[in-house]
Amino acid sequence: MGMSIAHGVAAGMGGIRTAGDLVARMQMARKMRINDAKAYVAKKLKISPSDLSDVYVMRDVREELDIGIITSVPGCAKGIEAKARIAQLLDIEIASVNRLKNKINF
Amino acid sequence: MKKHLTRRGDGALIEMTSEEIMSSLEAGTEDAADRGKIAPLSKDDLECLLDIFMDTNRFVSVEQGEEVVVTHDIGTLRLMGDQGNSGVGIPLSRVQGIQVHERAFCSDTMELGHIDYSFKPVKPVIAMEQQEMENALLSTIIPLFYGAMPNLGTYYSPDGPFGNPSDLLPAGKVKEAYEAQEGAVEHAIRDMVYVGEKLAQVGCDGINFDTTGAAGDADFKATLHAVELLKKNTNLSVQVGMAGEFVLGMHGGLEYEGKRLAGLYCNDQVKLAEKAGADIFGPVVNTKPSKDMPWNLSRAVTFVKACVEVSNIPIHVNMGMGVGGSPIFETPPIDSVSRASKAMVKIAKVDGL
Amino acid sequence: MEKAEYMKKATQYIVDADEEAVEKLARDYLEDGFDPLEMIEKGLSEGIRKLGDLFDRGEVFLPHLIIASEAMTAAVKILEQAMPADQVGKKLAKVVIGTIEGDVHDIGKGIVATMLRVYGFEVIDLGRDVPIATFVEKAKEVGADVVGSSALMTTTMAGQKALEQALKDAGLRDNLITMLGGAATTEHWAAKIGANFWAESAGDTVMKLKETFS
């Protein structure tokens, strides 16, 4: 029951359980304020901003888009696979994804 | 008269009537407004804070739909640390620690940090940090920062090449103290840019400058210049987290873009971070242990709200132990922590924690 | 000039860290036959107190505080020439201070040491990362009235508890006051380990020690 967990439960979006990582990426990549970042991601996912932190909605969305889900289901995108799809979905650059692409570009 | 449970700044449980709580809230916001020359919280804001403190639930939270992004500092040391860094001593690798945060704690972002969490000690072991970051990036989905403290103190004797201003100033060697700090700034910029560039090479998403300004205005200056260079030379996202509500004037004469750094409060600090190119800013407001939490949280929210209002970049308020309205206690009570979270989101309108 | 006007100017010159002006003022004050001790306690000390407040608010900075303390020292030197011998150089108490073993943070501790000197305490600053045994040896050697320790990390705080015990074991504890400070510490911690008091800031330290020793 650490402090950081308490903050996350009290106010956090929920990471890959929901859309927390996606909204975070828009803040980091484009300096978007929270509501703008949520609006952007919601539009890309074709859902409403209020659905972004609803695990009931986001579980299906993440599974369908194959952008990584919280449980370790075989076949679902994990790690860099998921990030590659997230970069495409959100139309942003993710450095580790670009690095992999460059490295496998035989 | 009914008493409500709350805490003192050091985490001790106390009881206060609603009148006492409101009186503390008013005093806290007035203190912040006076010091920072900013607007105090409105009557509505104070009423909202009062409701938060009078809520009898142990844990409170934001309303559905109000959630924000959480970024971190200290990396995974909170899990595997056991050497004076407030960790719980679970022998995990750092990559495992990051995975635990992603999958068990549902963190929105995470951070890799070295056990000696400053930029200067990381430089000789940067290859180790790079390979850890590479492994972490391959196996995780959430954005990853690399975090460290500018910590200009590592450039002063006995740890570094420059005289220590803490020794030079009391000895009346003011000119020498200035020179030491100015020299340390140059070295720190060089090291922070070096570390940042090395991590950018392996695909790191972002870099977090934690406790910026801890060693005073020289510390802040070095960070701003490093941010500028990293934004110019790399694709890193940059987060600047501060060390205090105002920048300690160890030098007093250092400037960035014509603005003196010493004495700047959060709402001015963020504008310089923006100018340097930072993507996310983390203001800090220190908790006073002798004051009650209503006073402390009201004061913290006042400072942060003023920062949010002038900022053009996301604000992720620092809410670790003893800052942002959290008590100064190594394991802060979650009743206080959750109230601070809620207040910062609802009233200060932060973009993240 | 009236005495009240002298006091007001003395306070302002210290706040402005104007050594030349405060030295001249001190000489003029003595020529007018006023009490030198009163100038130190009410005029000059008030200036330092105001500066302490301004420093806590981030409105003045450390070098300015140092220069102001030098101005005060210079003015006090002039005023002491007109004081009875038994009052000259009389220090309120002897304070041994340092950052506790394992901790290298010393900015705050340095500010406390400076402020205490300015307020008339004799301060022996042991520096940073000071072994417990060194605190004890020095306290014994100089006949310390106060032993103060600073800790900025939750792990180094344990050293402050060890210091309390070490002073007891050396038979010194009953004859001196212990105080502690540092960002990680609290009043609760001080009470828990048996320290006499905890100080939240440099100003708080000075105030508590002055109350004890004045």
Q: How would you explain this protein's 3D organization?
A:
The complex is a heterotrimer of chains A (106), B (353) and C (214). Chain A is mostly helical. Chain A is built from six helices and no strands. The model of chain A has no long low-confidence stretch (mean pLDDT 95). Chain B has helices at residues 18-36, 43-54, 77-80, 94-103, 119-122, 126-139, 165-168, 174-201, 217-233, 266-276, 293-310, 334-348; strands at 3-7, 13-17, 110-118, 144-149, 206-212, 237-242, 255-256, 259-260, 280-282. Chain B is of the alpha/beta class and 353 residues long. Helices cover 44% and strands 13% of the residues of chain B. A five-stranded parallel sheet of chain B has the order 3-4-5-6-9. Chain B has a two-stranded antiparallel ribbon with strand order 1-2. The longest helix of chain B is centred in the middle third of the chain and has 28 residues, at 174-201. The two termini of chain B are 36 Å apart. Helices cover 56% and strands 10% of the residues of chain C. Chain C has helices at 3-15, 19-31, 36-56, 62-80, 107-118, 132-142, 158-169, 187-193, 202-213; strands at 94-99, 122-125, 146-150, 177-181, 197-198. In chain C, strands 2-1-3-4-5 form a five-stranded parallel sheet, sandwiched between helices. In chain C, strand 1 (94-99), helix 5 (107-118) and strand 2 (122-125) form a beta-alpha-beta unit. In chain C, helix 1 runs parallel beside helix 3 (36-56), helix 5 (107-118) runs parallel beside helix 9 (202-213) and helix 6 (132-142) packs across helix 7 (158-169). Classes of the chains: A mainly alpha (106), B alpha/beta (353), C alpha/beta (214). At the A-B interface, helix 1, helix 2, helix 5 and helix 6 of A face helix 6 and helix 12 of B.
